[in-house]
Specification:
alpha+beta, three-stranded antiparallel sheet, 3 helices, 26% helix, elongated, FPF1, Flowering-promoting factor 1-like protein 2
Length: 112
């Protein structure tokens, strides 16, 4: 017997033998899509131009000395560097969580 134990909110536990098949059947295509939300405004980040504007307000600046395939930001007051793929369609939860960690209490990642 192999699989994944799933714990429901109501306390029921059950064994799922093929978790990938069940998750794709539940929402039609696999994992949930995520969005980056700017907490003070409640605005969902929908483009790099909107993200750049928010980051500039937080003291981040564009960094042009790195990889030309990346969209990068740095902050003079820290050693942090935010590196994002040039193509916004490749902006996924890994990059979103990087922004959240480097900007405490400013951003949140939500499922849609």
């Amino acid at each position: 017997m192999s699989g994944v134990w799933v714990f429901k909110n109501n306390g029921v536990i059950r064994l799922v033998e093929n978790p990938a098949a069940e998750s794709s059947g539940r929402n039609g295509g696999g994992s949930r899509r995520k969005v980056l939300v700017h907490l003070p405004s409640g605005q969902v980040v929908t483009s790099y131009s909107s993200l750049e504007q928010i980051l500039k307000e937080q003291g981040w600046e564009r960094y042009y000395g790195g990889d030309p395939d990346l969209f990068q930001f740095h902050k003079h007051s820290s050693i942090d560097l935010i590196s994002l793929p040039r193509d916004f369609s490749k902006f996924n939860s890994v990059y979103m969580y990087d922004i959240v960690i480097k900007n405490p209490n400013m951003f949140h990642v939500r499922d849609i």
